[in-house]
Specification:
The protein is of the alpha/beta class. The strands form three sheets. It has an eight-stranded parallel beta barrel, surrounded by seven helices. A four-stranded antiparallel sheet has the order 2-3-1-4. The protein has a two-stranded antiparallel sheet with strand order 5-6. β5 and β6 form a beta hairpin. Bound molecules: phosphoenolpyruvate and manganese (II) ion (MN). The site of manganese (II) ion has 5 residues, from loops.
């Protein structure tokens, strides 16, 4: 249930109404908008008559029920106002959300060595990325596959952060590692395979680090929003949703099916910022640029792109990773579209920019130069 206060309601009145609501065994959560304040109510609202709440104050404009099972994640809970997730990095605060430029998060699937991650981070920063992604703990289908360098890799990520000032996005797979991961990560990633690991969700909900929640590969949009609700309900409001492709019947030509329709659907259901990961979404580097363009056109707030200095030698996900040069070129290619939608900031000019501009400018570039 939400209580919409009239515009111009004095702050003391909002406070008085909030205090009253505690007496109803409800937890009020204020969302102060540009014009109006909305109070979201958590608790047994099903048994409450909205009319009785309305009588609490003449400053109450409306009392509405939130019909969806996800409450804090719902768009109604903030009366249609998009939320923003602000992340502090050494280079400054980066904002994720609908009213901000698109944020690029890029890096290798796995952190393979200090040298490799620092080299990658330098190139990404020069190309305009704001965050470095890289896995220290890797969820792999086979127990015999490379599992990530663990704690050592966390140290290497920290080094890359120090050198470049980029924010760090890295995955936590186990509650036992959360403290260590949280010391390094500016954004903690919950991977597709753990989207419904409810104990992990509750634990990341109990800390104040922003959380990137990837969509489970067989999760419905409602499952996904309910998973986000776990984090929000545990007290952490800083959740970013990441569409990374779902399982469909075609496994031959693509690894997953990137559900781009999920972006406008989420927009109609939730206030949370949306990220798109075209790398896992397709599994093939040649399709990444087209999906990046499509993600921008459908309104993604940020992109997560796998990039590796030598994809052929990558310890995981090489086939879907761009080279450093490929990423830089893609940044140049996506800029006009980002600008068209009014969601771009100037990217730094790098030495190879002129070179990139003389190449094929088609939106969906071929792979030969990647
Ligand atoms: C990853 O980001 O490298 C990863 C393992 O992603 P997902 O959980 O989406 O498969
Ligand atoms: Mn990967």
């Amino acid at each position: 249930m939400i209580v919409v206060m009239k515009s111009g309601t004095p702050a003391e009145e909002i406070e008085r109404v909030s205090q009253e609501l505690y007496h109803w065994n409800l937890i009020p959560e204020k969302c102060i908008g540009q014009h109006k304040t909305v109070i979201g109510l958590i608790g047994e609202t099903a048994i409450i008559d909205p009319g009785q709440i309305q009588e609490l104050s003449p400053w109450i404009e409306q009392v509405l029920r939130v019909e969806n099972p996800f409450k804090r994640a719902s768009l109604e809970f903030r009366h249609g106002q998009p939320s923003e997730v602000l992340v502090e990095t050494p280079n400054g605060v980066v904002a994720f959300g609908q009213n901000h430029p698109i944020v690029q998060v890029a890096g290798p699937c796995s952190v393979e060595s200090e040298e490799m991650i620092v080299e990658t981070a330098r190139a990404l920063k020069a190309a305009g990325a704001k965050f470095l992604r890289g896995g220290a703990y890797k969820p792999r289908t086979s127990p015999y596959a490379f599992q990530g360098h663990g704690e050592k890799a966390l140290g290497w990520l920290l080094k890359a952060r120090e050198v470049t000032g980029l924010g760090i996005v890295t995955e936590v797979m186990d509650t036992a590692d959360l403290e260590k991961v949280a010391q390094v990560a500016d954004i903690i990633q919950i991977g597709a395979r753990n989207m419904q690991n409810f104990s992990l969700l509750k634990r990341v909900g109990a800390i104040d680090k922003p959380v990137l929640l990837k969509r489970g590969m067989s999760a419905t949009i409602q499952d996904w929003l309910m998973a986000a609700e776990y984090i929000l309900a545990a007290g952490n409001p800083n959740v970013i949703l990441c569409e990374r492709g779902i399982r469909t019947f075609d496994q031959k030509y693509t690894r997953n099916t990137l559900d781009l329709a999920a972006i406008p659907v989420l927009r109609s259901l939730t206030h949370l910022p949306i990220m798109v990961d075209p790398s896992h979404g397709t599994g093939k580097v040649e399709y990444v640029p087209a999906m990046v363009m499509a993600a921008i056109a459908t309104g993604a707030d940020s992109l997560m792109i796998e990039v590796h200095p030598n994809p052929a030698k990558a310890l995981s996900d090489g086939p879907q990773s761009l080279t450093l040069e490929g990423f830089e070129q893609l940044m140049q290619e996506m800029a006009p579209l980002g600008k068209f939608f009014g969601r771009w900031t100037q990217t730094p000019v790098t030495a190879s920019q002129n070179f990139a501009q003389t190449r094929d400018r088609s939106l969906v570039a071929g792979v030969s130069h990647r």
